[in-house]
Amino acid sequence: MDISKNRIVDYTLYLLLFFGFTYxxxxxxxxxxPLLSLQMPQCQTSKTTQYQMAVYRDKLDVALSTTxxxxxxxxxxxxNKAYVDGDKPMLDLFLDGFWVGKDTKTLINHLLIVAxxxxxxxxxxxxxxxxxxxxxxxxxFVSEKLYMSDDFIKMMWRRTLFLRDVLKHxxxxxxxxxxxxxLRNPFPHLSxxxxxxxxxxxxxxxxxxxxxxxxxxxxxxxxxxxxxxIALFDSWYANKDNSTGLKEQDVLVRLMHQGLFRKLGLKVRxxxxxxxxxxxxxxxxxxxxxTVHANCCRSITAKLADLTAVIHDxxxxxxxxxxxxxxxxxxxxxxxxxxxxx
Length: 342
Hints:
By secondary structure, the protein is an alpha/beta fold. The protein has helices spanning 2-27, 29-36, 40-56, 59-67, 90-100, 118-126, 150-168, 227-238, 248-257, 260-264, 300-318, 322-326, 334-338; strands spanning 73-79, 111-115, 130-133, 172-176, 180-182, 198-202, 216-223, 268-270, 276-278, 291-293. Its EC number is 2.4.2.-.
């Protein structure tokens, strides 16, 4: 008898629990909704997090990743308003080199134009290039900076700081001044297996690509991102305030002669002007020349005049016969030579 009563009580309890649970789930949906939508806040949080990541992602990293090759290598040049103004701006002439050069057109896909002011940034965007606006802390980098002026030196140090940031983001790059014409693809003449940390142009090549006696020029160089090269840029930039009257290139030369390259274990190659030439020392072989730099020149106007002559020389060479190539001569860099008289 007691057993039957217990079974009835148990059965009754089970029924009450069943109806109570059914009521919560189906008959009172307003109260049950939090249970059914328990995972919704997680989805909303995930979307918010993704949105924040999109908004606050490093703008430089976006620009670098968009421009670089699969092995995180890109080309970089830096411009300001003075390089995009005029009937034939320096930036346009620079791009002409890629157009008339041999195997150079596709390299523009991996060229990042770094603008130091809004005008040059807008011009870059108009040309549909890869563009990055460099913040300059309200310093005026808009107008032309004559060689070795105080503003010129400040602009060069700002460039050095930016390029150090690129290395710290893990990207290898070729830095090129805008007054360098790319007449051939330079990569066949550069070490690409990363055995060389730095490959840098020279004003006058002394015949030994490993000699620190070569007068380097920071207007064109290829550098790989690693601990050694980042340490180089850290030391280089740290000397900014102890180098009154010296441009960043002079400071790098001084550090090199003080043994910093060897101390850091850097493998450095100094580039032959036969391939990577300039107005300081013309390439003696038009069949091999890769880049032409308007170095040993003081003003943008002079550089434009003499680089335009280089473009004409190059077109003349491309349209010439083999016999004419043997007698080829570059035009005199008259405007650049005269720029030092003012």
